[in-house]
UniProtKB/TrEMBL annotation, chain A:
Coiled coil (residue ranges): none
Job of this protein: Subunit of the V0 complex of vacuolar(H+)-ATPase (V-ATPase), a multisubunit enzyme composed of a peripheral complex (V1) that hydrolyzes ATP and a membrane integral complex (V0) that translocates protons. V-ATPase is responsible for acidifying and maintaining the pH of intracellular compartments and in some cell types, is targeted to the plasma membrane, where it is responsible for acidifying the extracellular environment.
PANTHER family membership: VACUOLAR ATP SYNTHASE SUBUNIT AC39
A Pfam family that the UniProt record links to this protein: vATP-synt_AC39
Keywords annotated in UniProt: Hydrogen ion transport, Ion transport, Transport
Record-given protein name: V-type proton ATPase subunit
Family statement: Belongs to the V-ATPase V0D/AC39 subunit family.
Quaternary structure and interacting proteins, as annotated: V-ATPase is a heteromultimeric enzyme made up of two complexes: the ATP-hydrolytic V1 complex and the proton translocation V0 complex.
Superkingdom classification of source: Eukaryota
Automatic annotation (TrEMBL), chain B:
Residue stretches spanning the membrane: 494-514, 526-551, 571-589, 683-711
Summary of the function given for this chain in its UniProt record: Essential component of the vacuolar proton pump (V-ATPase), a multimeric enzyme that catalyzes the translocation of protons across the membranes. Required for assembly and activity of the V-ATPase.
Highest taxon of source: Eukaryota
UniProt membrane topology term: Multi-pass membrane protein
UniProt-recorded name of the protein: V-type proton ATPase subunit a
Family affiliation: Belongs to the V-ATPase 116 kDa subunit family.
Entry keyword set: Coiled coil, Hydrogen ion transport, Ion transport, Membrane, Transmembrane, Transmembrane helix, Transport
InterPro entries for this protein: V-ATPase_116kDa_su, V-type_ATPase_116kDa_su_euka
Stretches of the chain forming a coiled coil according to its record: 90-117
Subcellular location: Membrane
Amino acid sequence: MYGFEAMTFNIHGGYLEAIVRGHRAGLLTPADYNNLCQCETLDDIKMHLSATEYGPYLQNEPSPLHTTTIVEKCTLKLVDEYKHMLCQATEPLSTFLEYITYGHMIDNVVLIVTGTLHERDVQELLEKCHPLGMFDSIATLAVAQNMRELYRLVLVDTPLAPYFSECITSEDLDDMNIEIMRNTLYKAYLEDFYKFCQKLGGATAEIMSDLLAFEADRRAVNITINSIGTELTRDDRRKLYSNFGLLYPYGHEELAVCEDIDQVRGTMEKYPPYQSIFSKLSYGESQMLDKAFYEEEVKRLCLAFEQQFHYGVFFAYMRLREQEIRNLMWISECVAQNQKSRVHDSVVFIF
Amino acid sequence: MDLLRSEPMQLVQLIIPVESAHCSISYLGDLGLFQFKDLNSEKSPFQRTYATQIKRCGEMARKLRFFKEQMTKAGLSPYARSAMSDDVYLDNLEVKLGELEAELIEMNANNEKLQHSYNELIEYKLVVQKASEFFHSAQNHAAVKQREVEAHQSGEGSIDSPLLLEQEMVTDPSKQVKLGFVSGIIQREKSLAFERILFRATRGNVFLKQSAVEGPVTDPASGEKAEKNVFVVFYSGERVRNKIVKICEAFGANRYSFTEDLGKQFQIIAEVSRRIEELKTTIDFGLVHQINLLQTIACHFEQWSHLVKKEKSIYHTLNMLSIDVTRKCLVAEVTKLKNESSSLILQIQNVLQQATVDSNAQIGTVFHVLQTKESPPTYFHTNKFTSAFQEIVDAYGISKYQEANPGVFTIITFPFLFAVMFGDWGHGLLYNEFFSVPFELFAPSAYGCRDPSCRDATTAGLVKVRATYPFGVDPKWHGTRSELPFLNSMKMKMSILLGVAQMNLGIILSYFNAKFYGNELNIRLFGYLSLLIVVKWCTGSQADLYHVMIYMFLSPTDDLGENQLFFGQKFLQILLLLAALVSVPWMLFPKPFLLKKQHDERHRGQSYALLETNLDDSDGTELHHGSSSHEEFQFSEIFVHQLIHTIEFVLGAVSNTASYLRLWALSLAHSELSSVFYDKVLLLAWGFNNITILIIGLIVFICATVGVLLVMETLSAFLHALRLHWVEFQGKFYEGEGYKFQPFSFASLGKEDE
């Protein structure tokens, strides 16, 4: 179908594409961020946001605000928009939209399981879950004692079930296991999503494979850095990398044997797109890496809007909003804790 | 002529002492004559002077919204004519609202707590009742079974009686496993998943018994009504129990303890019922109290919300004023109508005076007129009738300050063009037909039958018997074979005539515009051009013969032969053609050169100008707003611009004329459709002499007339009239780059909020 999707795309996707582009126009601009960064109190932030699309969501909040309220309300807006789009969507767009939430689902599963491991209250944990990644029986996760039970009890009913085939073991859950489970799930999820996008074909496949490859590579780097100095063996580490992306397969071989951050850097600098990211960092530093990756991601996501007639815009929009909410959270935290000098540390400007 | 040019405006500077600022703005808002200019546009909202007050107002508005929500929940609506007490001030109101909100929230919390325990008790009662039913029926059942087994045993135990059953049933009490159970209530839609998870988690080692509760039950936690099931889960072992409890929590199922002892059950039910009664009265009392409170709020709600809105708008306006360095006075720049009646000016002065007195300010407000180069806003005095047409123009663009307003002409031309296409009574007169039935209104038709053999109207059998029909189209044309070609050509020519007339009006208006703005250069060019076009089109429409026009361009010197309409036509044609040829480059070249010349002159004069402005500034009376731009003169750019303009104009003149043919097309479509419906539906149905067919025909006719002729045709005629005005007419002269005059007024507050 490549090249001809423009002829038929608008029959089902036109309305939603228009909607999502409209939503995208409502993202905060650098001018907004400048103003937000000058805020003295959380009320100032609320006042400023009331002039943006977040206005209706914040206007009924009583005055002593908390960062969590702001973030919660902003997320609520995103969720509302997502639900609206999902209601309107037809196949295969609806499946595509559902795929976007699986990442949150994995995170929520991990959050609940880790929480119960440390004997935290389930209700409290549920409140911390991302609303996009909720499913019916999520609270039941607390019952499970090991991976096998986890799968048999709860996850078999969720869309995550197929991703679980890799990690059904009867080992008891512990922090390490859970982290490995998260990454295995993520790997399976990304590969599945990638395959799905390839099946859709056309501009969607082209753009999404780029975005997902970036995501996969970023995860590979993060896994490597986080597993340095842990008891994770090289082979196990290698197994957690997704089987696509720019680094696949040779980069993965090199990453698997990395022992410190500079070796990672050495590997990554062989790949031109990632050269610029690492060139911003000084040697031995991994603190700013997240931000650098986020910036690169935002740039790529924005580019997705340059082309028409594909589903990548939905993915890009959701990701950009999430980044925006992260920015707002950071700014609010800085304002609330009187650390305004650090405001710019973690804010990633969109556009 | 008020409508042609927008009202003259004046920029006025107000210097208001800080003490009386709030009061003054409030009084001015009552008057609603001034549009305030934002002098702090570079500041973000929370950096402005009165940001805190606005935040307070926002907070109060939030409280009011909370009250409103509570009122709608309680089924109350704010009284339209609320009690007006004059002495409500913002500070008092803020305190009052705060108190009320706290009271209401506390009351709600109490009510909620009570409601929670009330709902819990109700659920408990349900669970006890249902569960006791289970146990009762189970016991009966078990007793029957027991008796059966006993009967079997007494019958010496037949061979086919199952051994296992025997063993099971005759277990001695010491070996009997004590089964535990958990009872509770769960939402019905979750019950299936609940059962499934229970089964999976315990590997089937539970027994779940469920029973539906009739009618919705209010959930204590969420306070929402839901369909629910009472369940009892039987299990064995402590670990399973833990799992079940966890699953219950995860599914939001409320567990309630239950005893097997019948006597205790009755006791519990009685106890619970008594407490439910008690709680009910308490809750009712609380609700009455709450409704009383809400009613008092409802009495004042309108007034309060109006006050808050008003205050908020006042502070927004105050934020637009620039504050003096000494922080003693605020400087406002406002635009107002220039020539107001003296009574209004007096009113303004009075109001400002009043504000000074009311707020005990030491100094009055200083009021003086500024000179400005900025384009003021546009304002027209419209009434109910003219405002509709002004809106049509405004939808295209608000006219520039004192630009010729097409709205004036639209009042006449819009209905006219609409009617040409849609065919109203007046145009019905022109064609002498209504509903596609010919009417001989002015005189009998000029044509009659040549001999008695021709009954139906066909052109073949007609001869002229009387004088020419006095007005419009002879009704006899209707229904003849040559009707269409004749009417087509007539309507086509008519629409071109109308179009040319309207476009000429547009060109003339552009001349007026140019003259009004004192742009000499434009005038000369436009004068020439409009002359050309008037003459060209006049001839075009007079000499209906197309090939006259065509040959005029192809072979201007040839003999006209029989196409000669009047004396000297040939000479005139050649002249016009030459004029047309000359005018195009004339339009193209001089303007850029003249502009260049002007620019050079301006540059030479610049040094003087600087001196002059210095003098002015020292004088201090006149401030210059906006800087005259001294951009580098781009000759090529202007030239290209002019080239585009010329090409556009020449092509536009032709294509726009063609555009007016839609008048003909729509008029034709309308008349043909109406005649089809009339002839082929109504008359056809009439011809059958059958009452049923007639009624059906009538219904079809009415539907078609209303649906197609009235609804669709009206829309399309409106749309085309709109287009002709926006593109063909206004495109000739209208810039529409102005902005509307929006005076700060409390009267418009309520409207924009809804």
